[in-house]
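Whiteboard transcription, Tuesday session. T.W. wrote the structure tokens on the left side:
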């Protein structure tokens, strides 16, 4: 472990730094270095678009330097943490760049988080300054911070963006405090912690994931090369920039490619399609629901979105039919499943050609930039084609967690990270996710993968989306319950569903023994279905029904 200037311990070693530097995979460039390169080429190039807002490279540089100067005047030093809980607004880019210039640690927080999550994150990260809206979507962020201020001893500065309130400094006023001429830029170590991002916390407290300038840059280099992205591309970013996907490809990638990003504050398929056509968007990346809804809109409105070249999708299961339908709807877009996490942003990168449509639809695609092991519960490598837990390591892997305890649980001594996800590797070298270890349904001692059942359910014409979770059973221990969102106007009886599954050839033991029809799934901000909530809900229902039955004469 290595002591970072931020105070956290990281998994870096001199050997690892030397190896990745010598290979050239770590370029030792910060985002400020990349901005300087963009400025040298074309300072007036528009790099960020959000509604009527347009930010050129020169304007971004001006604002970032003013903000960095103001933060420096207020006493922030290398290694201090700056948080922002903001929508997809270009101000997030300015904040991130100012942090990079000063060697501060940036901490994006997803805007849907409220008192419990935000107070925990600010306290755990030791945040010195936080940027928030005064209000957004009818929620008062300033009041929320005020409620917890006395329990946040490290928090010295609250800055409101696009509004002002008592007890905080407005963003524009803070910029006016800055004096770029007096800005003293420190030497920033590209291997220092640049980002702390908290996982979505579907189980337990969120974990603070630590990334460096180099690990982030390596990820963006990998996907850019795999998809042949460059300065002629245009990025659409509907994913929250406070989530790893939006942060990497919305805030960071434009500087790496010298290519503009179009921000969406709020997702809707109609607006996305209009932006794609208006700006000639070529690349986007988002969770399954985004791809599914854009595909449905394109199909129903004969909008083939001819400029769109790539739409990798992940974060939640992507049924094969979603990929096939997208390829029918879009003129040239290559769509595929990908797999990654906050800790290891993309272990697989799908496919980069429509010629490999089936591979992109039925697997998570090719492993790029990672070493991967598939192991059994005892940690032994499984035979080729067999299922096991994914262990991964590579130059884009995070530096570890803020908590030593979390590091001890997740990382092997040789650097391999326990993802907690289950997969197989095909003969083509592609990965197929079969579920999470904790998502397994153990029915009478037999392991059932929910993913396999979900893929079959998604083929039913009445089903829009399905999630299968473990349900308590008095004799078998667990059986499956299928939560279903149906297509508009559709109906589905349990017996009809079982008859449909009978035609798939699937073993009967895998059939769900109950269905629950719901309007929408509970999701994390990254778009993942919160199966823990569904498991808790069905367990509660089963317990109540058992109690009621026992009370009935």
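and on the right, the sequence the group agreed on:
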């Amino acid at each position: 472990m290595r002591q970072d200037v931020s105070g956290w311990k990281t998994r870096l070693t001199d050997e690892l730094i030397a190896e990745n530097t010598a290979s050239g995979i770590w370029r030792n460039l910060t985002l400020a270095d990349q901005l300087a390169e963009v400025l040298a080429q074309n300072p007036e190039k528009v790099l960020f678009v959000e509604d009527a807002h347009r930010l050129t490279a020169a304007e971004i540089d001006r604002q970032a330097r003013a903000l960095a100067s103001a933060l420096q005047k207020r006493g922030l030093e290398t290694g201090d943490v700056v948080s922002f809980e903001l929508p997809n607004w270009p101000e997030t880019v300015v904040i991130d760049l100012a942090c990079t210039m000063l060697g501060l640690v940036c901490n994006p927080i997803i805007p849907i988080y409220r008192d419990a999550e935000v107070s925990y994150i600010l306290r755990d990260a030791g945040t010195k300054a936080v940027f928030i809206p005064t209000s957004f979507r009818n929620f008062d962020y300033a009041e929320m911070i005020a409620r917890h201020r006395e329990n946040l001893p490290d928090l010295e500065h609250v800055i409101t963006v696009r509004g002002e309130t008592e007890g905080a400094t407005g963003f524009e006023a803070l910029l006016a405090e800055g004096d770029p001429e007096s800005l003293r830029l420190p030497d920033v170590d590209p291997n220092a912690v640049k980002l702390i991002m908290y996982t979505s916390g579907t189980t337990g407290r969120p974990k603070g994931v630590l990334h460096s300038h180099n690990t982030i840059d390596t990820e963006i280099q990998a996907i850019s090369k795999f998809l042949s992205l460059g300065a002629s591309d245009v990025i659409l970013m509907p994913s929250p920039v406070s989530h790893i996907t939006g942060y990497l490809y919305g805030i960071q990638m434009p500087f790496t490619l010298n290519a503009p990003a179009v921000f969406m504050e709020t997702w809707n398929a109609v607006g996305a399609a209009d932006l794609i056509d208006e700006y000639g968007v070529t690349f986007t990346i988002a969770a399954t629901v985004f791809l599914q809804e854009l595909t449905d809109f394109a199909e129903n409105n004969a909008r083939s979105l001819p400029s769109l070249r790539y739409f990798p999708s992940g974060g939640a299961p992507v049924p094969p039919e979603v990929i096939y339908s997208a390829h029918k709807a879009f003129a040239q877009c290559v769509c595929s499943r990908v797999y990654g996490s906050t800790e290891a942003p993309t272990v697989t990168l799908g496919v980069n050609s429509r010629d490999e449509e089936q591979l992109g639809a039925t697997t998570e695609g090719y492993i790029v930039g990672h070493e991967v092991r598939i192991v059994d519960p005892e940690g032994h490598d499984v035979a080729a084609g067999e299922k096991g837990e994914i262990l991964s390591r590579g130059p884009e892997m995070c530096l570890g967690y803020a908590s030593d305890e979390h590091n001890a649980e997740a990382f092997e001594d040789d650097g391999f990270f326990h993802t907690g996800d289950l997969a197989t590797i095909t003969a083509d070298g592609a990965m197929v996710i079969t579920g999470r270890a904790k998502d397994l349904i153990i029915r009478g001692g037999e392991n059932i993968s929910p993913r396999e059942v979900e893929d079959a359910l998604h083929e039913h014409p009445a089903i829009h989306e399905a999630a299968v979770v473990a349900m308590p059973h008095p004799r078998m221990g667990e059986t499956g319950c299928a939560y279903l969102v149906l297509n508009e106007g559709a109906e589905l009886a349990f017996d009809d569903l079982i008859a449909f599954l009978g035609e798939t050839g699937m073993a009967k033991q895998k059939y769900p023994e109950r269905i629950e029809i719901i309007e929408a799934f509970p999701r994390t901000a990254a778009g993942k279905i919160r199966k823990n909530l569904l498991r808790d809900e069905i367990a509660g229902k089963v317990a109540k029904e058992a109690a009621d039955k026992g009370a009935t004469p």
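Someone added at the bottom: The chain has a mean pLDDT of 94.
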